[in-house]
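From the pipeline queue, job 12 of 40. The input is one protein chain; the requested action is below.

Action: predict structure.
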Amino acid sequence: MMAALGEAPIAALDIGSSKVSALVVQKDDDGAIKVLGSGQRESKGVKRGYITDMEISEVAVREAVDLAERMSGVTVDEVWAGFAAGGLVSDVANVEVELGGHPVEESDIAELLAAGRAAIDREGQVVLHAHPALYTIDGVQGVKNPRGLHAGRLGVDIHVIAADEAPLRNLDYVIRSAHLGVRAIVASTAASAEAVLTEDERDLGVALVELGADVTNVSLHAGGMLVGLRSIPLGARDVTEDIAMAFGVPRRDAERMKCFYGSAMQSPRDNHEMIDAQVGASGEPMRITRAQLVTVIRQRTEEICNEVDAALRSLGFSGPVGRQVVVTGGGAELKNVDDYMGGVLGRQVRVGRPRGLPGLPDALSGPASATLIGLALMAAKGDDGLHDIALKEAARTARSGGLLSRLIRALKEGY
């Protein structure tokens, strides 16, 4: 299949702890995004979101991208990659400049953001996202658009997401070893938010719980941007491991049992429904009740939900009971996980499924693909559509060497 007329194809790459996924999309002349091809491979060289085996990870990247290239009929040169490891930190940097009372012009805002390069610098870390929030005029906060307003002092809060340099370098190296350029590295939770949150939710305030295989990222979004982030080193694979250990079944069988028969909520009929399983390498047959399986799943799910509750409290997510929580990621595909989490948190919880795109395979329509689709949506916005000054700089810079050196150089030279 040949790519249709329109802008150049865009490739997204999500290197997760359970799978490596690639997606090729294209935006037509009307701005509509269409999926051209996709590929997926099992991920064996990633643990808790960190690259732990360069060679195995590189092979998985090559194979996933190759599948997407064959389906789309285009050659992928560079990708927008997601970073899902723990250790991401969020912070707010405040910057202010003197104006002397004249009306705010575009050049004043540019000067303000340029002055912010020192404020957003994080020693020993790389800034992935730097999103200007609401502006302040002479100390008055909450100004969305200061252009044309008279001001003695103009300020802005810049929300920063940063990560340790070493794991980012490893991610960058693996992708480049597969002979691909890295156009940008995006925090997975920012990409997932792009795919599953509505504009109203992001503006009014919402918590996003990204249940990955090995890591659960909890983030707050308000005023249209990510404003707080916590990472929990637990995920859906921990539930699978618990099932494997509890019943002595292989991991693949444990995953199958979780997907087909598992639930986060118990029901009376679970005591009467039987599940066939094979124990150990010899494959000895065994029968358990669905209630036994759900009990094991509930124990780990309760732990994760309690950790999520603690993370939300530490982020100050309190106030109106109606403030919503959205759960996404592969772990959100567990039956009734939204109802169970809602009971623990005392809030309304919905499963965040990525918005549909023409040509998207059914296998990529669930919450497990939120990061991958979010990456494609962010990339399709182009430089002018991005309000993230760090990401915009990374995407605009011509490909030369590794992405990390460009990010670091951008911080030193200014935007």
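Job complete. The chain is about 35% helix and 30% strand.
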